[in-house]
Protein: 5-methylthioadenosine/S-adenosylhomocysteine deaminase
Amino acid sequence: MPTLHIANGRVLHPDHSVTESDVLVDQSTGTIESVADPDPDPDTDPAETLDAEGGLVIPGLINAHGHAAMALLRGYADDKPLDAWLQEDIWPAEGELTAEDIRIGTELAAVEMIRTGTTGFADMYFEEPHVAGVVEASGLRAMLGHGFVSVGKDPEDARADMEKSVNFADQYDNLGGGRISTAVMPHSLTTVNEELLCDAVERAREVDVPVHIHANETTDEVDPIVDERGVRPLEYAEEIGLLEDGDFLAHCVHVDDEEIERLADSEATAVHCPASNAKLASGIAPVQAMLDAGITVGLGTDGAASNNDLDMFDEIRDAAMLGKLGAEDAAAVPASAAVRMATEGSAAALGFDAGRVEAGATADLAVVDLDAAHLTPEHDLVSHLAYAASGQDVRHTVCDGQVLMEDQEIQTMDAEAVKERAEEQAADLVERVA
Ligand SMILES: N[C@@H](CCSC[C@H]1O[C@@H](n2cnc3c(=O)[nH]cnc32)[C@H](O)[C@@H]1O)C(=O)O
Ligand SMILES: [Zn+2]
Structure:
């Protein structure tokens, strides 16, 4: 049975204590076999050793909301609010996206994620079978779904798109050696009409997958629901059958106290996207209040076109910074809470048995190099993860027991070729849109 030995480093445990420990990974099951004191005289001869000397073994970070192929639209349109940005720039460009654009954009995202210690991600986009192909080849873990809207569409086309979302979720769940899971993904509570939303939720239950949706991202999204229905969006969400176990809501920026309570009383989770919310000036989510209420909160970058990178270390820092500003309290969203959002919070939101370095968990890990001026001195390593480290400090990335990056060299993909191809494809896309 092949064993991966992550040796000579320190380990961040689920309680956020740090010890000098070795991690043994059973590569046949992709799980962590043990986290134990370093063995000075190992009598077994592990097939593979990853040297973590001077490094910290952390759970692989999990990006719980995004649109991976939008990496191809990074820097394409900036400095606009959500509605104008989507309608004037992004949707017209997306109208021209081919399956090949999406495959290459997703490959670019995969390279960036592996490079920066992200081992799992959620993706709401289109041409998802091609996304699944990239997930399979890259070795990452992912929760995938076909996103759909009804606004601006012929009702029959919109219904067909909803069916496509259900069929994809049904057919691709648990593929990729179990690394792929799926959800039905209506775009938002305002861009999909009530009838289609209700049907999508019902169909998701039938095929036994969760629902992922953008919720309460901007006031422009909340106000029409309140005006037309006289209820807050999350009450509407519950009325149409959402907020069940496994459902996860992106953003939750403009949620009032009653909605926070409703979400806390439900089995659904929230995914906080601080950088996207700041860049589109959507607002500041009441993250500390959500955590205090007992809501499981994960962390996501959203698409690279509204971030503009997929580095989850940045996201952790933004979550802590914005959380403090929003609560007007420097004690809000402390380092440890922000790190937990990107690890166990995101894992719980996506239903991954990951987000912790512990025997029995899936072996989704990253090793962060601590030997850097910006990570010196070592008063508090959790503080460093939240406030000082970046994805560029990641030395090794492991997912499902497979080494995806060793010594900053990606093993499963040709990073240089992917970048070159993405550059060409993006230029080609811009010509097609013009
Ligand atoms: N527009 C598609 C379906 C939606 S897929 C997911 C969509 O989310 C969009 N998106 C990206 N970032 C955000 C965000 O922050 N809020 C809302 N939508 C976003 C993205 O551009 C993409 O169109 C259709 O024709 O049916
Ligand atoms: Zn989004």
In short: The chain is about 40% helix and 20% strand. The pocket of SIB (ligand 1) is lined by residues 67, 82, 86, 90-91, 94, 124-126, 147-149, 161, 187, 214, 217, 276, 302-303, 306 (CB under 6 Å). The CA atoms of residues 366 and 397 lie 4 Å apart.
